[in-house]
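Attaching the record inline, Q. Sequence:
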Amino acid sequence: MLKKSVLAATFTAALAISHNAAATIVLVETNMGDFEINLFDQTTPKTVTNFLTYVRDGAYNNSVIHRSLKDFVIQGGGKRYSGNNSAPFTDIPARGPVDNEPKLSNVRGTVAMAKINNSPNSATTNWYVNIKDNSANLDKDNGGYTVFGVVTGTGMSIVDSINTLYVPGGAFREAPLRNYSLTDWTNKVPVTASNLVTIERMTIIDDSPTTAANLNPKPNTLIGQVTDSGSSSGSMGSALLLVLAGLAFWRRPKV
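Structure, as predicted:
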């Protein structure tokens, strides 16, 4: 009887571990190549549910990567190309905001929700991929930014290639452009849909529980800390955060 009890307890514990490691995998197909995002369903359930609602509805299909900040992030999930170069983007319709869940760290390769500055619970459609370890600022700024997934396999090679593209400014602001250069911009060569980085489709390719133990997401240990105005890495007066404030990276009502 004791042996059966021990076996039952072991089996129950194994099921609990498996359940806690459940992960959904989303395939992001772009015109520059595909990458997969493994979601942290159990750690950030509200954010994952919000994200998957947009994925299942096809809201992200035929959208664009509308922001690329060199060696920092690429951002998508918020815009589609309008075809009008004087006002090139339209907003993806958003549902209500989701509660912030800043439990994991904004290290390289992680995917997190963008939001309105000074509004911790304002995330809706926009998400970003961290190009480098941005934990020093993003884990604690604005209530911390919710990491809800990670790019796996060789996917970061696609993300990095997007981040190296030319960013024109003007009406296109921080949008990266394919097969387009500063010379083209200076000569006023029209930007076409083929120049934009397009998310052609996002689909769930695995929604069953997986072990995902090898992902080892890094916990956010900085949440609740106040940014040190005198430090070079956390100063609101630093060049990085001035750029963020000026560009309103987290989410613009309109572009």
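The mean pLDDT is 83. DSSP finds six helices and eleven strands in the chain.

More tomorrow.
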